[in-house]
Amino acid sequence: MKILITGGAGFIGSHVVRLFVNKYPSYQIYNLDKLTYAGNLANLTDVEDRENYTFLKGDIVDAVFVEDIFSEHKFDAVIHLAAESHVDRSIADPLAFVQTNVIGTVNLLNTAKKHWAENLQNHLFYHISTDEVYGSLGEDGLFTEETPYDPRSPYSASKASSDHFVRAWFHTYGLPIKISNCSNNYGPNHFPEKLIPLAINNIKNERPVPVYGKGENVRDWLYVLDHARAIDVIFHKGKVGDTYNIGGVNEWKNLDLIELLCDQMDQKLGREQGHSRNLITFVKDRAGHDLRYAIDSSKLMDELGWKPSVTFEEGLSKTVDWYLENTEWLENVTSGHYRDYYEEQYTNR
Ligand code: NAD
Ligand code: DAU
Question: Looking at the keywords, is Disulfide bond present (predicted)?
Answer without folding.
Answer: no
